[in-house]
Amino acid sequence: MRAFDPHDSTPPITGLIGAGPAMQKVYARTRLVARSNASVLLLGETGTGKELIAKAVHTLSPRGTGPFVRVNCGALSESLLESELFGHVRGSFTGAIDNRTGRFEAAHTGTVFLDEINSTTPKLQVKLLRVLQEREFERVGDTHTIRVDTRVIAASNRDLLDEIEAERFREDLYYRLNVVPIHLPPLRERREDVRELIGHFLAIYNEENDRYVAHIEPKALEALEGYEWPGNVRELQNYIERAVVLAPGDELTCDLLPDAVLGRRPESKRLAGVDVETLTHELVLRGIAEAGAEGTDLHARIVNRVEKELLSQVLTACENVQVKAATKLGINRNTLHRKSKEYGLDETEGES
Predict the structure, then answer these.
(1) Which residues span the domain enclosing 219?
(2) Is there a domain that residue 10 lies in?
(3) 197: domain CATH number?
(4) 44: DSSP letter
(5) Are 197 and 48 in contact (CB under 8 A)?
(6) Mean pLDDT of 218-242
(7) What span, in angstroms and rounded, lies between the C-alpha atoms of 86 and 100?
(8) Is 245 part of any domain?
(9) Are residues 69 and 156 in the same domain?
(10) Cβ atoms within 10 A of the Cβ of 266, count?
(11) Residue 332, Cβ neighbours under 10 Å: how many?
């Protein structure tokens, strides 16, 4: 049985894995946009590798020798994120004991990557729009205008046009960010890359754990290539790491894989014990009934109802351990914490 070798084929862009048609389109657009200073909007499901593409755009650009600064917009509250992005002056708020440089200043002559841009509030979106248009801003609590030469790459795992329609995202900011969009395909649409990704992660975790899991059982490979991968590449990475750690010998076998991958549990319809399709159907019907004939906010009403109930049920199934629940949902733990607080679900949070 042949050993997996991650160097069997050369990645089209250094550090990125996958040579199938779907990723070739991504690589081609990445190379093209890297030559410019245009804003880039990365779109795709959680775990599809948006940060890797952002780094590639930066590295391949004339700004490649400058700083690359990442900000997870979904991980901080509005006030903290504003300070993180634009900095603050001493005494501008409780706890501001010194002047602080923001991420936009830190990224001067380089690139700032705004991950989960859909999580920003309307107030921050106004400030971001100004930075994109004018290349200037003020630190929190200051009147001195700072000018920066910073390229902006943003990412979202939600459809921003839907967010605009729901009045959660500014249309003018969307068009400023969406100069060049790059869509990252989910792993289920690039199954031809699964084998190469397995070899890549086997090499990484063999070295990290001083192991030699160099072979894979044919049935295990068949299961991995046939799985839907709701968590995308990140989910595959986690399962390969687990298999390397638990493998008694040098072969990755079926017993080292989760039940969902082996087809023992329909992951696409159930999430942490929640029947997603039935839940959604029932809540949509209930929302329509409650809105009545005169209801004008039906979309927002139903989306919020479904999201709240899904979070509630997954948190319950995970015994209110938010790290586990966030992993099941495929979202950032800080995003889950913020949404749980919005819906009043964070009162009994378990230990992580």
Answers:
(1) 191-256
(2) no
(3) 1.10.8.60
(4) -
(5) no
(6) 93
(7) 9
(8) yes
(9) yes
(10) 11
(11) 19
